[in-house]
């Protein structure tokens, strides 16, 4: 294996293991900022040693052991109680096979999941809602500040400052690394759901890089969502989020060609949609609806996804119902992005001219000024109206705004097709 191959392997291992590594260290140190630093130190050590020694059989456990040795040094400097220090020292001296020690098992609470503890800690009310989501995406999703900034449609320096301040605040306030109980748990639930869904979305439609999708992030978000659903089985929005993620994830295999190019929803081979995930999603949605009450944003989005999942062909999709559900969602969750999605549904239900009128009403919306999907949607509607020269300009603008390589190529191809259509009307 070449040095380049090893570095690629390290990058892959880091993407998979970093969140668990940070979460495990944070529980020991009660300091998420320090945990992230020690995790990064372990990564540096791997980059130095593995090219000479090769990638170990259990790279995640190797990283955890290396990081725990550094954690012991921190605990020693902080003069924590001798019993805990000795237990931690004894743990790291032994061979770690599955990344989870007896001590870690002993310290588990009713959820038994370090990653979920980390989400609830990062979503502490001492932080602003924006900081909670940004910090958790950074620590658990492994996203860069640029990727998070694009998810929130705000400048990258803003996200960077939020993350730095959030870690400092958690350390200064000595926030315990735990899953809260009772009413405090319920208060943090909305932020936790938001974070899990943002992680899922980053996997479902990657904001930057060369991959259109990152299934490992979708799988991680669904895993966390399932743990949370087991914790709060009577919370409609928890079940709604689970339903939404399961239904959307059912399309992952059909969203790209064998070489990774995007395939839009109307063009997907629905035989490749995962029937098990669809059944699980529809069952979770049914459970959520049986609990009664006003449908929240996640349950509404799941209901929209269910319309697609139940349609055997793209032509059979009930777009009028989808448009009505988006109108309901716009009331529950006012947002220019929801309005943009509603415009697409209206265009499918009532024609591209009706959708274009709604899109044009969003032209001066500040949050959408640099959002690539606004010109992308407008280009699609103009193309359907055979206004090909205008459509080409919109697709070209969208291509300059996206940071995803696959999506940029796709938009450029659409622009070229419109240019050709304009030359030969």
From TrEMBL:
Pfam families: DUF6596, Sigma70_r2, Sigma70_r4_2
Entry superkingdom: Bacteria
DUF6596 domain: residues covered: 188-288
Annotated RNA polymerase sigma-70 region domain residues: 21-79
Domain RNA polymerase sigma factor 70 region 4 type residue range list: 119-170
Gene3D superfamilies reported for this sequence: 1.10.1740.10, Winged helix-like DNA-binding domain superfamily/Winged helix DNA-binding domain (1.10.10.10)
GO biological process: DNA-templated transcription initiation
One Gene Ontology term of the molecular function aspect: sigma factor activity
PANTHER family: BLL0085 PROTEIN, BLL6612 PROTEIN-RELATED
Name under which the protein is recorded: RNA polymerase sigma factor
Lineage, uppermost ranks: Bacteria, Pseudomonadati, Pseudomonadota, Gammaproteobacteria, Lysobacterales
């Amino acid at each position: 294996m070449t040095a380049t191959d090893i570095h690629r392997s390290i990058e892959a291992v880091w993407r998979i293991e970093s969140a668990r590594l940070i979460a495990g260290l944070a529980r020991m140190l009660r300091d998420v900022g320090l945990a992230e630093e020690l995790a990064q130190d372990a990564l540096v050590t791997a980059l130095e040693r593995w090219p000479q020694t090769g990638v170990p059989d259990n790279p995640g456990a190797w990283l955890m052991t290396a990081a725990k040795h550094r954690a012991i040094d921190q605990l020693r400097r902080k003069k924590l109680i001798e019993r805990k220090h000795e237990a931690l020292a004894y743990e790291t001296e032994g061979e770690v096979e599955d990344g989870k020690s007896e001590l870690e098992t002993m310290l588990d609470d009713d959820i038994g999941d370090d990653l979920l503890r980390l989400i609830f800690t990062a979503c502490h009310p001492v932080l602003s809602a924006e900081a909670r989501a940004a910090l958790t995406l950074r620590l658990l999703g492994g996203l860069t500040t640029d990727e998070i900034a694009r998810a929130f449609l705000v400048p990258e320096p803003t996200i960077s400052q939020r993350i730095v301040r959030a870690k400092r605040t958690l350390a200064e306030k000595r926030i315990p690394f735990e899953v809260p109980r009772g009413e405090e748990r319920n208060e943090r639930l909305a932020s936790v759901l938001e974070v899990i869904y943002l992680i899922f979305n980053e996997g479902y439609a990657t904001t930057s890089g060369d991959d259109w999708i990152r299934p490992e992030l979708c799988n991680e978000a669904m895993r966390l969502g399932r743990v949370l659903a087991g914790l709060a089985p009577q919370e409609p929005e928890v079940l709604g989020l689970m339903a939404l993620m399961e239904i959307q994830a059912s399309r992952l295999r059909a969203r790209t060609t064998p070489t990774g190019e995007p395939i839009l929803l109307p063009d997907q081979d629905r035989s490749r949609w995962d029937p098990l995930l669809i059944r699980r999603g529809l069952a979770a949605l049914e459970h959520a609806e049986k609990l009664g009450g006003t449908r929240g944003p996640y349950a509404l989005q799941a209901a929209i996804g269910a319309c697609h999942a139940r349609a055997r062909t793209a032509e059979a999709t009930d777009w009028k119902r989808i448009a009505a559900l988006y109108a309901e969602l716009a009331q529950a969750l006012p947002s220019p992005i929801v309005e943009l999605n509603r415009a697409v549904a209206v265009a499918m239900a009532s024609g591209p001219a009706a959708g274009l009128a709604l899109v044009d009403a969003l032209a001066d919306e500040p949050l959408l000024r640099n959002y690539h999907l606004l010109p992308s949607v407008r280009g699609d509607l103009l193309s359907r109206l055979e206004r090909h020269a205008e459509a080409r300009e919109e697709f070209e603008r969208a291509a300059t705004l996206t940071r995803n390589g696959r999506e940029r190529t796709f938009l450029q191809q659409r622009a070229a097709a419109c240019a050709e259509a304009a030359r030969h009307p």
